[in-house]
Write a structure and sequence with these properties.
Helices cover 36% and strands 25% of the residues. 36% of the residues are buried. It has 2 domains: 2-87, Nucleotidyltransferase, domain 5; 97-251, Nucleotidyltransferase, domain 5 (2-Layer Sandwich). The radius of gyration is 19 Å and the shape is globular. β2 (11-18) and β3 (21-29) form a beta hairpin. It is an alpha/beta fold. It has helices at residues 36-49, 67-81, 108-120, 155-165, 185-212, 243-251, and strands at 2-7, 11-18, 21-29, 59-64, 86-87, 97-98, 125-131, 134-140, 145-153, 218-223, 238-239. The strands form 2 sheets. Strands 6-9-8-7-10-11 form a 6-stranded mixed β-sheet, sandwiched between helices.
């Protein structure tokens, strides 16, 4: 069995694979500092609660954008599983041609997304949009070349910025609004968050298709926690929530 972990700014998103099939998924907060003991006990308990013997775990594959937690994660697997985890980065990737002057600056989660994308859609131009804490766009050519992309504030960051930098606006639940014109402050914010992101995605996709891919056919993949909000907006070719985990599994 192979455990794949996407360590993001908000959560650790985990998935356990056996013979190419994902058996379980889970999340654990990454914003709160955790010791190696806390993490090791948590990972063992997740497996046991799902009737999986921790000794069956043979490999751990990780992508992390939170360097401060990496030491504790590595120590947890060494101490509790006697396993040296693999950390994906721009230097270790083999199945992706990175056309980027500074590969180490690329988020490992974005590399993992790209690896899974070219595996699932070989010989296709691809745009991957990951709607997490930040919203990222990545361009991959039909030849498997990672070109780079775009980073903008995610929905949650945008909502939090409004709440923290204004006197009268409060945090809201991020949902798809029923209509574009809100009838109260909460609905106003929800509409602004949703349609601001929708408009930005449509414009960025249009420009990437036009300038990066010369108006050739492009597969647009959505992933990340907020991707499902836009499932009915005719933006994505497909939504693949576990895309980053698939890339980690393929890299292991």
């Amino acid at each position: 069995m192979i455990l794949c972990l996407d360590i993001g700014n908000t959560h650790i998103f985990g998935g356990l694979y056996q013979e190419g099939q994902i058996q379980l998924q889970f999340r654990y907060p990454s914003a709160t500092p955790a010791t190696s003991d806390q993490l090791g006990v948590f990972f063992k308990s997740v497996l046991r609660e799902n009737n999986i013997d921790p000794s069956e775990l043979k490999q751990v594959s990780i992508c992390s954008v939170v360097p401060s937690i990496n030491y504790s994660i590595r120590s947890a697997f060494l101490k509790y599983f006697s396993l040296e985890p693999f950390f994906l980065d721009g230097k270790s990737v083999k199945t992706l041609k990175i056309i980027y002057p500074t590969p180490n600056e690329i988020g490992a989660d974005r590399i993992s997304n790209a690896i899974a994308a070219i595996h699932d859609y070989p010989n296709k131009n691809i745009i991957v949009i990951d709607l997490g804490t930040a919203t990222t766009f990545d361009g991959i050519t039909a030849n498997g070349e990672y070109l780079g992309g775009i980073i903008m504030p995610g929905l949650y960051i945008s909502m939090k910025a409004l709440a923290e930098n204004t006197a009268k606006l409060s945090p809201v639940t991020i949902v798809k609004p029923e209509k574009i014109i809100g009838k109260n402050t909460m609905e106003n914010i929800q509409a602004g968050l949703f349609y601001n992101h929708l408009g930005a995605m449509r414009e960025i996709i249009r420009r990437m298709k036009q300038t990066t891919f010369n108006n050739e056919e492009v597969v647009v993949l959505g992933t990340g926690g907020f991707a499902s909000l836009f499932a009915e907006e005719a933006i994505f070719t497909a939504i693949v929530p576990e895309l980053v985990l698939q890339g980690l599994y393929l890299s292991s």
